[in-house]
């Protein structure tokens, strides 16, 4: 197999829809569809594709765009890798585990390809933005047919066409930072709740993190494009949106006419028909009082703040390049609790960063006890090639990381349970998402504080706001009775 390797370096900034790019995409979707129609006529069925998505909502969103393109190109969908003629892995690089899974799956597909030589394998997403991964796949996984990165997703039809017509391994990874391409279609998975990207990339370079290398520099979408997208979603039945970015608090800085995140929140709050607005992720160094005031003042903004602390030790936070101290963080929480008394908090916590001492772990536990998080995502530090932390001294042994992780988790879980218990006999507003299990009258939904609530009902209130009295709180969800 030969490699077509096009490594484009471009600094072009694209702010609005470029009709040319979309036209080219359309042309290639047509070309592939024609090839697939011929294929289908010979085989008596359409080719079948599976997209396996790892990682965060950025990837979920990208997969929805791929899904749209694949449908247009005449593919049927499956969830089962063993049924597929085309397997696409949309990969994540944030921790080693996520990468290991992909390599494991590639190993299995090597076997399947022996009995199904027509099987095509494509890999995209964050792993592919790392040159050492591309080298590894080119060298040791020659059965892969197509590799592309996060910046050139919209070119997928053209790349797929090239692969099909040449039968060579096609590799295209761009090193671009500045593009925002508007007007791409996507197949949204779930209508009631939708994720809306407000910005891409990250400028923060936390010393442990690969994201700035895989997603490029921070760039914001124009507020009008965001508002238009949400209005369109609402017209199709969406009731809740989560505004997404790696650091939403620095939204708008790269725009020609800068807009702050708090201003954007107030604009989104005006959209008629929308019931709830959430956002993530907030970097503590950039959160302004105005964002907290917006949550206080705007009826649609949910009383829920995901504010990743990572760790409670000021000296370790410095080594992480986070730009805030333990005290700065606790001050933000104090302010938020004062302005919005029923605010719920969640966070990301990392255990085992190089050089972490037991005092540092205690600082983290202090923060957990002071904030009292509703929920926390706890991660064990994973060495990422190319990041500064990977070269730091005093890496913590795996076993010790796990011991500390369990210690911290105990505090997180205990507090979660205690907060749930505080809901007993309280009446909460629930946005009903649907049945929790098929063939039952049990429904599930979320409170404004993002707690899961389950209740029985003979009537289907999916998509509506109902009032539920909590009768049986559990650690991670609340059971109750509908009171309307
Ligand atoms: N932009 C977001 C987080 C994106 S990644 C923020 O700044 O909060 C999600 C979480 O993964 C991070 O908050 C961090 O806790 C975790 N993470 C990132 N890199 C990691 C690594 N090398 N090892 C373990 N966890 C990591
Ligand atoms: Fe990674 Fe830090 Fe950027 Fe979050 S803010 S994506 S943790 S570099
Ligand atoms: Fe998301 Fe993983 Fe990439 S967390 S941005 S898919 S590295």
UniProtKB/TrEMBL annotation:
Record's keyword annotation contains Aminoacyl-tRNA synthetase: no
Domain named Radical SAM core: residues: 188-418
Listed cofactors: [4Fe-4S] cluster
Major subcellular site: cytoplasm
Domain TRAM, first and last residues per copy: 421-484
Localization, UniProt: Cytoplasm
Cofactor-binding details, from the entry: Binds 2 [4Fe-4S] clusters. One cluster is coordinated with 3 cysteines and an exchangeable S-adenosyl-L-methionine.
Entry keyword set: 4Fe-4S, Cytoplasm, Iron, Iron-sulfur, Metal-binding, S-adenosyl-L-methionine, Transferase, tRNA processing
Domain MTTase N-terminal positions: 47-165
Gene Ontology cellular component annotations, sorted alphabetically: cytosol
Reactions catalysed according to its record: N(6)-dimethylallyladenosine(37) in tRNA + (sulfur carrier)-SH + AH2 + 2 S-adenosyl-L-methionine = 2-methylsulfanyl-N(6)-dimethylallyladenosine(37) in tRNA + (sulfur carrier)-H + 5'-deoxyadenosine + L-methionine + A + S-adenosyl-L-homocysteine + 2 H(+)
Alphabetical list of InterPro entries matching this protein: Elp3/MiaA/NifB-like_rSAM (IPR006638), Methylthiotransferase (IPR005839), Methylthiotransferase_CS (IPR020612), Methylthiotransferase_N (IPR013848), Methylthiotransferase_N_sf (IPR038135), MiaB_methiolase (IPR006463), rSAM (IPR007197), rSAM_horseshoe (IPR023404)
Range of residues in the leader sequence: none
Root EC class: transferase
GO molecular function: 4 iron, 4 sulfur cluster binding; metal ion binding; tRNA-2-methylthio-N(6)-dimethylallyladenosine(37) synthase activity
EC number, UniProt record: 2.8.4.3
Function, in words: Catalyzes the methylthiolation of N6-(dimethylallyl)adenosine (i(6)A), leading to the formation of 2-methylthio-N6-(dimethylallyl)adenosine (ms(2)i(6)A) at position 37 in tRNAs that read codons beginning with uridine.
Family: Belongs to the methylthiotransferase family. MiaB subfamily.
Name of protein: tRNA-2-methylthio-N(6)-dimethylallyladenosine synthase
Record organism: Peptacetobacter hominis
GN (gene name): miaB
